[in-house]
Amino acid sequence: PKKDLSVSVGSENGCWEGTFGEVAQGRRRSTGEVVAIKILKKKRYHGRVVKKELKLLQALRGVDTEESHIVRFLESFADGACTYLVFELLEQNLRDFQKKNNFLPLPVRHIRTITVQLLAALLKLKELSTIHADLKPENIMLVDHARYPFHVKLVDFGSACTLTEACHIKQPYIQTRFYRAPEILLGLPFCEKVDVWSLGCVMAELHLGWPLYPGINEYDQVRYICSTLGLPRGELLCAAPGEEMHCDLRGMVALLKTMLTWDSQERITPSAALEHPFISLQQVKSSFEATQYYQLCHKDLRASRKDHRKRHKNLFFSPNGSGEAEFGTAGTRGSPVARCPVPTGSRRGSPTAHSNPAQKPPAAAPGWCRPQGRWRCRHCWGSASGSPPAPIPPSA
Q1: What is the DSSP letter of 21?
Q2: Distances from the Cα of 192 to the Cαs of 117, 120, 145, 203, 232, in angstroms?
Q3: CA-to-CA distance for 126 and 359, rounded, in angstroms?
Q4: Which residues lie closer than 8 Å to 141 by C-beta, 6 or more apart?
Q5: Of the four listed, 35, 39, 61, 325, which is most buried by Cβ atoms within 10 Å?
Q6: DSSP category for residue 206
Q7: Same fold? 2-88, 92-238
Q8: Sheet bearing 34-41, strands edge to edge
Q9: How far is Cα 103 from Cα 69, in angstroms, rounded to an integer?
Q10: pTM given for the model
Q11: Residues belonging to the active site
Q12: Beta-bridge mates of residue 142
């Protein structure tokens, strides 16, 4: 077939540039028929991508392209460097048509004419269990606007997939951003209705003269959608993969906001923090009790509390008259106990701020001493002679 074609590369005279390949205009030497040739370079595109598109196009060959308004696929061939897909030649895409008309709003009656044809195309694709996944003005071609005003066909199946394939895509990244359906933005399961969303965006754009949702990134895209449709329902968000982890993260952020406050009077207390939905798992449990993530969190929390109770039996806290707290091992006589002083509010550097200065510790190793069988930090007593520590000199 390649020897029967003379090819001139370019996007003029009705050729379009596809998502996954350049498009050239060619002519059959045997018949003189002018065709469009999509060129897929093997260095740039993975073999599976090419085979996938070719398989979908082969399935469309038996379709009545005039009735279904889908571009007519003629043949394919390949050489060592490229794969060539041959289509009927169409005039121009809707994007170029808008540009030539200075993006003036299209009358509603013409939008209806275009929409009914594209709905017929989507209906046929649904019968074939196929999702186009990139419906936009650039992929909607005018056949011959002078002879058949607003007669269009759907082109470019480089992003298309079957419904079976869609079920196994865990993190889909399909559709051009302006026309990307919410389920794709939110990482939800999707079906052929993503194309219906895209068509709605195209209809609005034809009437407005600019994209309905011109987000500069996915976050901005969601913001635009929320500004017109409001926030999505909670159960819709909960259906997103990994939403239980996002819910848990939001709970942690909520707790952090109560812990990190300028005014200590507004700061949460430990007892209140223990009752917080993030700590008690109530926030995750209310929506995701049946998930593996909740079960793991619940198991970890139970294990930590059980371990805490076990350790608590061997840990005691007892204030004494000297203003110190003792921590040690219960039931073990004569074992080392770290004695931590608690300031009593006296002037810093005064011996009364720590202990009785008359009670002098015996000499011991540098840094530590052991009066009456207990370990104490030398800094709690000052020097070995019992004098208070020297004041810190001011910086020069």
Answers
A1: B
A2: 17, 13, 29, 18, 20
A3: 91
A4: 16, 71, 90, 91, 92, 93, 94, 152, 153, 154, 155
A5: 35
A6: H
A7: no
A8: 5-9, 22-28, 34-41, 82-88, 73-78
A9: 24
A10: 0.62
A11: 134
A12: 92, 152
What's the N-to-C CA distance of the chain in angstroms? 89
Name residues whose C-beta falls within 8 Å of residue 52's C-beta, 6 or more positions apart in sequence: 161
Q: Where are the domains of the chain?
A: 2-88, 92-238, 243-312, 318-381
Determine how many CB atoms are found less than 10 A away from the CB of residue 190. Answer: 23
Instruction: Give me the amino acid identity at 302.
Output: R
pLDDT per position as a tens digit, 75-103:
998 887 888 999 999 999 999 999 999 99
Cα 74 to Cα 35: distance, rounded to the nearest angstrom: 9
Tokens standing for residue 27: 């002519």
pLDDT tens string 226-276: 999 998 887 676 666 566 676 777 787 888 888 888 888 888 888 888 888
DSSP 359-393: SPPPP-STTEE-GGG-EEEHHHH-STTSPPPPPPP
CATH 3.40.50.720 fits 2-88, yes or no: no
Question: What is the token pair recorded at 359?
Answer: 């009670």
Rounded CA separation 352/119 (Å) = 88
**Amino acid at the residue 189:** P
Record the tokens describing residue 32, joined without a space.
């003189």
- 3-state DSSP helix/strand/coil % of the chain, to nearest 5: 40, 20, 40
The CATH classification of domain 92-238, taken from the options 3.40.50.1000, 1.10.510.10, 3.20.20.120, 3.30.420.40: 1.10.510.10
Among 211, 229, 18, 195, smallest CA distance to 115 is for 195
Q: What is the DSSP string of 73-99?
A: EEEEEE-SSEEEEEEE---EEHHHHHH
Looking at the DSSP bridge assignments, the partners of residue 8 are 25
- CA–CA separation, 171 vs 157, rounded Å? 20
